[in-house]
Every structure is written in C-alpha cells, then in structure tokens.
Amino acid sequence: MSQIIAIANQKGGTGKSTTAVHLAYYLAIKKGYSTLLVDADSQTSSSQWINNLEKPIAFKVIHEKDELFKEMPKLAKQYDYLIVDGPAGRLDDETKAILAWANLVLVPIQPKVLDLSSTLKAVLLINQAQEIREGLPKGALFLNRAKQGTRLKDEATRFLRTVPGVISLKTIIHDREVIADVPGQNITVWTMTGRPAAEARREYTQLFNEILDLLKI
Ligand SMILES: Nc1ncnc2c1ncn2[C@@H]1O[C@H](COP(=O)(O)OP(=O)(O)O)[C@@H](O)[C@H]1O
Ligand SMILES: [Mg+2]
C-alpha cells in the first residue's frame, strides 16, 4: 500500500528540504522502494538537489494548491512512497491540500524560541485535517539542528512533548556541518566518507525507521 509522507512547517529554514531529500534517498536507494519526491516549495531546492544526485530518484515539481490536491492521490498509486517537500511562508492552502492526502506529516523544528511558536501553527493545520479525516494525517515532530548539551535542546524536547494531537519523536537530528555541506556537493550523507557523515547517517536512519514504524500502526 502506498504511503504519502509530507515534510511540513510554514517556517522557512527548519530543514524540510534537507529531510525530504535524505528520506527520499533512504527509501529509494537504501531500501529499494519506488519513491517519488514531490517538490511543493517554489524555491525548488529539493528537486534541484535530487536532480543532481548520481543515482536517479524520481521527482515532480507541483506548487499550485489545486494541482497538488488533484495529482497527489494519482501519483501515490504509482509509487510505494510519495515524499512531499512542503512550502514555506503563508501558503496555508497548499499545506492544506497536502494534509488532505498525507498519511504522515513530519515537522522539523529548530530548537529556537521563535521556531517553537511557529510549530503550533503547523500543528493547528494538522489538527484541523485530523478532525475532518478521522485522525489522519499522523503528525510527528522532531528537533533538527539541535546543539549537543544545550539548555535550549532540553527545553525544546520538553516543549514538544506537551503539544497535543501529534507525536514527539525520540530521534534528534543534531546541527552537523556535514549535513549543511552535502547539497553543495550534490550528494547525501550516504555517499560521504568519514566519521561525521557516519554519525549523520545513524541519526537519519533512526529517525526514518521511527516514522516508518508509526506508519505500520
Ligand atoms: N541537521 C542540520 N545540520 C546542519 N545544517 C542543517 C541541518 N538541517 C538543515 N540544515 C541547513 O539549514 C538550512 C535550511 O535547511 P532547509 O532544508 O533548506 O530548510 P527548509 O526547506 O525548511 O527551508 C540549509 O542551509 C541546510 O543545509
Ligand atoms: Mg525548503
């Protein structure tokens, strides 16, 4: 059965595109699933990155809300997984079209005060969709770009646990230079050598397995 996983957060720069590309790579290349990345962000950063990878992964750019609404279920029938890189900014209608079809919404959050309040905006849209769709999509929040041993990271972890109607994931993706560097080299952390890349791979693998487990429930 095909699954639609959306990466959403109206706040820009939280790591949606980075997470979307790594998740699409993990599912397509490491796990061998037929996977399509849908780039719904007008900056098209994830589709350009995917397009430049050594190993081909299918992608489609769709920005317009009605087209997203119409195409997502059709595309889902053709793939095991659809990974939707959501838009940033005031694009609630596009986000709502995505939430109308997604099985799971993954929300990357940076442990910063402003980012935590914008989290609640994303969660509100998820909760509204859940009311209409009898509990779907599942919402899963995780900390991205967390700094080891900081008070903010601990405070943010506690805060995420208090957000209603969504799951706070155990895995934390830390702020890692290697993750910031890979798009410029048209690769993912899976094709990078060295210990920092191995640590980033370990975190991403744990995060993705955590969400794949949620989809089985
Ligand atoms: N875990 C991380 N560690 C270091 N840099 C990161 C991490 N996640 C994302 N970044 C960097 O943060 C910036 C914003 O990430 P991006 O994925 O483009 O966010 P969004 O798509 O939500 O706007 C990019 O420069 C990206 O390389
Ligand atoms: Mg982006």
Which small compounds were modeled alongside the protein?
adenosine-5'-diphosphate, magnesium ion
Principal-axis shape: globular
Query: H/E element string?
Result: EHEHEHEHEHEHEEHH
CATH class: Alpha Beta
What's the main sheet like? 8 strands, parallel
Structural class comes to: alpha/beta
CATH topology: Rossmann fold
The tally of strands reads 8
Stretches with pLDDT under 50, minimum 5 residues: none
Number of domains: 1
The helical percent reads 40-55%
Please report the distance between the alpha carbons of the first and last residues: 13 Å
Protein name: ParA family protein
Pfam families: CbiA (PF01656)
Domain CobQ/CobB/MinD/ParA nucleotide binding: 5-186
Question: Short description, anyone?
Answer:
By secondary structure, this protein is of the alpha/beta class. The protein is built from eight helices and eight strands. InterPro entries: CobQ/CobB/MinD/ParA_Nub-bd_dom, DNA_Partitioning_ATPase, P-loop_NTPase.
Detailed description of the structure:
By secondary structure, the chain is α/β, with parallel strands linked by helices. It has one domain: Rossmann fold, CATH 3.40.50. It has 8 helices and 8 strands, in the order βαβαβαβαβαβαββαα. Strands 1, 2, 3, 4, 5, 6, 7 and 8 form an 8-stranded parallel β-sheet that branches. α1 packs parallel to α2 and α3 (65-78) runs parallel beside α4 (92-99). The chain is globular, with a radius of gyration of 16 Å. The site of magnesium ion (MG) has 5 residues, from α1.
